[in-house]
Specification:
This protein is an alpha/beta fold and about 425 residues long. The protein has 3 domains: about 5-35 and about 90-325, Type I PLP-dependent aspartate aminotransferase-like (Major domain) (Aspartate Aminotransferase, domain 2, 3-Layer(aba) Sandwich); about 35-80, no CATH class; about 330-430, Alpha-Beta Complex (Aspartate Aminotransferase, domain 1). Helix content is about 40%, strand content about 15%. It is built from 17 helices and 13 strands. It has helices at about 5-15, 20-25, 30, 40-45, 70-75, 90-105, 120-135, 150-160, 175-185, 205-220, 250-255, 270, 290-310, 315-325, 330-355, 380-390, 415-430, and strands spanning about 120, 140-145, 160-165, 170, 175, 190-195, 225-230, 260-265, 280-285, 360-365, 370-375, 395-400, 400-405. A 7-stranded mixed β-sheet has the order 1-9-8-7-6-2-3, sandwiched between helices. Strand 6 (about 190-195), helix 10 and strand 7 (about 225-230) form a beta-alpha-beta unit. About 45% of the residues are buried.
Length: about 425
């Protein structure tokens, strides 16, 4: 087995100094991860201000500007620097801006220590970076039984981890007791994934449920478990009633316990409606973390980015930054949110107006995000899905025995017809 690089050893030393427990939470890959600050990138950085710079693998015009095709430049309204590589850590200005936005959306973070976000190629890549850093083969990832199927590809197929499920709901409430039972067992490293708003169900926990989850995690940490909490916040902020939590669980977990490492995975994909930009962020926090220790985690994450995709899209990062700096960004975002909120309200109205739909399906609890799920009554979901396509020109997704409806992708004027079609398809299959 090859020796661990000296740079990785230095980062590991920081993450185990002064009683810090984060080193023990790293996977074997995570312990070998480092950012190659002494290689090509480091040498290029040292030569950045030189008159003749023959270090980096880009090309320049005779005047020193990026050598890019004019037909490409004409298609975007961005500086030509956007054609160059971004750092593996991501655009420094965008990282600072996203951190600022995180605090605006989670005010209680203002007085807490957490790392600078590292840019990933959207959420899926961020999850993969987390898997690289924290999961060894046969490690368990604890998560609800209603989950996004890509977790299986990322954690199980790529890193060999096992998924350990608990029941998502207890009636209409989040099943915190089942989560606690899933965390029980021999003391050691635990990896827990929490996803709010949840995909596929479109459910965000209430403040009461959040407090209960925080108490469960603190109890587990007090018992000696070292808990890595992966927070998939892809749909953060898209909540449609006043009962749900207003901040990410990252905020209360950031300084809850030395045995708890909070890993926030988020980005503009769903929040800012830029699905094709493929930009995300990974951010770390734990109680009593020093700036050096947080920087060590950033370096490890950026090292994984460097070793997998080199860096995320420069044009996407530059476009996002330009958008965030616009005065009307917040106003436009609120307008788009209102469109989704109106569709949510329409669903509530339609379901209330049609009690007969209970013969065909039962809605699962939902209050946020892009989706809702229904459990069919007396009909096979896959058969109903096929009938919906063939006879009603309606597309839905079947996951975990449920039918997922992406109301985010359905016009307000078609919401009523969506549920009428679903009811008719179920009745056709049943009868």
């Amino acid at each position: 087995m090859p020796q661990t690089n000296a740079l990785a050893l230095a980062l590991n030393a920081e993450l185990s100094a002064d009683g810090c427990l984060i080193y023990n939470m790293l996977s074997q890959r995570g312990k070998t991860a480092y950012f190659p600050s002494k290689g090509i990138l480091g040498q290029s950085a040292e030569a950045k201000s030189t008159t003749i710079n023959a270090t980096i693998g880009t090309a320049i015009e005779e005047d020193g500007s990026p050598l890019s095709l004019e037909c490409m430049e004409e298609t975007i309204n961005l500086p030509s620097e956007s054609f160059l590589y971004m750092p593996s850590f991501g655009s420094p200005k965008l990282r600072t801006m996203w951190r600022k936005l995180m605090v605006e959306k989670n005010p209680s973070l203002a007085e807490k220590s957490f790392s600078q976000p590292v840019v990933t190629s959207a959420l899926t890549h961020g999850l993969s970076v987390a898997g690289y850093l924290f999961l060894d083969p046969e490690d368990q990832v604890i998560l609800p039984d209603l989950f996004w199927d890509n977790y299986e590809l990322v954690f199980t197929e790529a890193y060999g981890a096992k998924l350990k499920f608990y029941n998502t709901y207890d009636g209409d409430s989040y099943n915190v007791n089942a989560l606690a039972q899933a965390l029980a067992g021999p003391v050691g490293k635990k990896v827990l994934l929490l996803n709010f708003p949840n995909n596929p169900t479109g459910y965000t926990i209430t403040q009461k449920e959040a407090d209960e989850i925080i108490a469960v995690l603190k109890k587990s940490a007090d018992a000696g478990n070292q808990v890595v909490v992966l927070l998939d916040d892809a749909y953060f902020g898209l909540a449609y009633n006043d009962e749900v939590i207003k901040e990410s669980l990252f905020a209360p977990l950031a300084d809850l316990h030395e045995n708890i490492l909070a890993v926030k995975l988020d980005g503009p994909t769903k929040e800012d409606y830029v699905w094709g930009f493929r930009v995300g962020f990974i951010t770390f926090a734990f109680k009593n973390a020093t700036e050096v220790q947080l920087k060590a985690l950033e370096n490890k994450a950026a090292g994984v980015v460097r070793g997998t995709i080199s860096n995320a899209s420069s044009i996407s990062q530059a476009t996002l930054l330009k958008g965030y700096e616009k005065e009307n960004y917040a106003e436009q975002k609120a307008q788009k949110f209102a469109i989704l909120r109106r569709r949510f309200d329409k669903i509530i109205e339609v379901l209330a107006a049609h009690p007969e739909y209970a013969e065909s399906f039962t809605p699962m609890p939902f209050n946020s995000g892009y989706f809702m799920c229904v459990r069919l009554n007396g009909a096979d979901p896959e058969t109903v899905r096929q009938v919906l396509i063939k006879d009603f020109s309606t597309g839905v997704i079947v996951l975990s025995g449920l039918v997922r409806l992406a109301f985010s992708a359905v016009a307000h004027t078609k919401i009523e017809q969506l549920f009428a079609n679903l009811h008719a398809a179920v009745q056709k299959v049943k009868g």
